[in-house]
Amino acid sequence: DIQMAQSPSSLSASVGDRVTLTCRASQNISDYLNWYQQRPGKAPRVVIFATSNLESGVPVRFSGTGSGTHFTLTISSLQPEDYATYYCQQSYAIPRTFGQGTKLDIK
Amino acid sequence: QLQLQESGPGLVKPSETLSLTCTVSSGSISISHYYWGWIRQPPGKGPEWIGNIYYTGSTHYNPSLKSRVTMSVDTSKNQFSLKLTSVTAADTAVYYCARWGLHNVFDIWGQGTVVAVSS
Lengths: 107, 119
Fold this sequence. Notes:
The complex is a heterodimer.
Chain A: E1 4-7, E2 10-13, E3 19-25, E4 33-38, E5 45-49, E6 53-54, E7 62-67, E8 70-75, E9 85-90, E10 97-98, E11 102-106
Parallel strand pairs in A: 2-11
Antiparallel strand pairs in A: 1-3, 3-8, 4-5, 4-9, 5-6, 7-8, 9-10, 9-11
Chain B: E1 3-7, E2 11-12, E3 18-25, E4 35-41, E5 48-53, E6 59-61, E7 69-74, E8 79-84, E9 93-100, E10 106-109, E11 113-117
């Protein structure tokens, strides 16, 4: 299985901050990397697919980069609704695997 | 807009079979190029992919669960289902159904259903 490692596991930041979350794959997954946002008690929702593509309806302050084994999700200016847990997920191989998440909370 | 809704018992006894159904509304399950999946999330942990099914019945399962998992689809009811046998406390989780879309991503999710395994 391809292991997905996210860092940091938690991050405190203020409204308006620029934050970058990292995801590393245990092997080359090209650009087959998705990011999901999960608010407490809710289902995950996709924010970025295929490394850098913004899902419809997601604010442009979200962006994704990377390739191979190293990927990042950046939020350019944190808004109150962005406080959530973010998961990366590889779609390169079966089984589809997720990272353990980065919890973003208010500083 | 397409919606998914999970249904099934919230409590299952150890060694028994967990059975869940996902009902797809405002759209057809019999659409080319889309798969339908199950994902679970134990308390405080990241999601775990269980498997995907195509409307023809073709399946892909997580090897770690493959011996205990069966997924099926009922196109006449616009539903797909999950059966997980011989459950233990480790199977306690929120279970989600979701659509695996054209961009190789789970793009639409159900709200999730809590399943606890306990005697």
